[in-house]
Write a structure and sequence with these properties.
alpha+beta, Glutaredoxin, globular, 21% strand, 8 strands, 8-stranded mixed beta sheet
Length: 183
């Protein structure tokens, strides 16, 4: 029975890539509206979470480490908090207490769930520079696990076919590189 299930799941097609939906939320501690579209040209790791979600809280330090390690290469880690009501102070205390430096967007109405067709938290999406979802994780993840890190690095290495600058591993665009001299 287990073998049959394994063979069946291996035969099922992988989810096709799809364009990320239009999505806006409010920046934590501000009335400023921010949009996923404004991050076009960057690779985005978009994670939906809540302070009451234990697996979400366990992921946050790894997402912060990833943010610090790859932000100069064009990775934008964004946490979308769905705590209901007027929870900004509670969310801000949590974020500050954990030393989280990546952007936190607030969506107390959880419009995220409908826009991205998610069932719960945490869920994480990897969006390439062109705004296409290239990977979706349901449940908690370790972004530094080899398979996950490979997906993130591949998205960072892929050029932006929309004409944006290709960011090199050192965070510079190709025009910033010293030209090679012929020998």
């Amino acid at each position: 029975m287990l073998l049959a299930l394994a063979l069946l799941s291996a035969a099922l097609p992988r989810a096709e890539e799809r364009t990320a939906p239009e999505y806006t939320a409010r920046r934590l501690g501000s009335t400023e509206q921010v949009s996923l579209a404004s991050l076009r040209g960057q690779v985005v790791l978009l994670n939906t979470w809540a302070t009451w979600c234990s697996p979400c809280r366990k992921e946050m330090p790894a997402f912060e480490a990833l943010h610090r390690e790859y932000r100069d290469q064009g990775l934008a880690v964004v946490g979308v908090n769905i705590d209901e009501g007027q929870a900004d102070e509670q969310v801000a205390r949590y974020v500050e207490g954990k030393g989280i430096d990546f952007p936190i967007w607030r969506d107390p109405e959880n419009r995220f769930a409908k826009r991205f067709r998610v069932l719960g938290v945490p869920e994480t999406f990897l969006v390439n520079r062109e705004g296409v979802i290239v990977r979706h994780w349901q449940g908690p993840i370790d972004p530094h696990a080899p398979d996950n890190l490979t997906s993130i690095q591949a998205a960072l290495a892929a050029p932006d076919s929309a004409g944006g600058p290709e960011v090199q591993p050192n965070g510079t665009a190709p025009d910033d590189q010293p030209s090679a001299r012929p020998s």
